[in-house]
Amino acid sequence: MTPTALQFVLVGLAGMAAGLVNAIAGGGTLMSFPALTAIGMPAIAANVTNTVALWPGMVGGVLGQRRDFDGQRSRLWLTVPIGAIGGVAGGILLLHTGERAFRTLVPYLILMAAALLAAQDRLRAWLIGHAGHHESPVSPLRLAVPVAGGAVYGGYFGAGLGVILLAVLGLVLDETLTRLNALKQAIALSANLAAAIFFVSSGQVVWPVAIVMGVGAIVGGTLGGRLAGRIAPKTLRAIVITVAVIVAAVYLIKG
């Protein structure tokens, strides 16, 4: 497809919104993906293009928490490759899902992501309350299996991946929330980057759109970093959840 100038503006603004939301509250995909389908892109191509466009914005989060990786090298060596493999597996699964079937799944995936976003604060509170309550060392398999499941989801759709990974890591690891969040950032980046690299050869990426949205996401992420202390994450998250529910309802009505 060849977007019009107005559609490029919409895509750029959606990328900015996604970058800003990801920097402050999370859930940016719930803003950017619907914008791509709104300009007429097929659902799978929109999802693929969205993944390619938004992954660079995740690098800042990893770099920002690099000090929290101290003492977690063995976990990174295990979970980051698993995240990458899972991301590719999710990408393969996506490309083998028919357009009609994926479009049918989209509203339910969006609603699930919105529900995860809504539960984020409660999850964090639960993790803080249970930090240090694990009584035995965690086996590599016990850590690898849930991470792999989350990574596959990330490569397939991705919205809400951070919440999923934080939940599974908190269930199996005896760590502070800050260090769990750093590990989550690294795994999510590896899953999304691996999926994005895989999608490059899929023929589904609409490159002009991906570039415009990617630039918008970087600008939005930078802006979000500066506004992080001025905008309440709960307020922004409530807006994103409301928009997501409306978008999902529209998808359901359209069938």
**How many E-type strands?**
0
Q: What oligomeric state is this?
A: single chain
How does the overall form come out from the CA principal axes? globular
Number of domains: 1
Task: Please describe what this structure looks like.
It is built from twelve helices and no strands. With 255 residues, the chain is an all-alpha fold. The protein has one domain. The radius of gyration is 17 Å and the shape is globular.
Key features?
255 residues, mainly alpha, 12 helices, 78% helix
Write a brief structural summary.
The protein has helices spanning 5-24, 29-38, 43-54, 59-64, 73-95, 99-118, 120-130, 140-156, 161-172, 177-200, 207-227, 233-254. The protein is an all-alpha fold.
How are the elements arranged and paired?
Layout: H1 5-24, H2 29-38, H3 43-54, H4 59-64, H5 73-95, H6 99-118, H7 120-130, H8 140-156, H9 161-172, H10 177-200, H11 207-227, H12 233-254
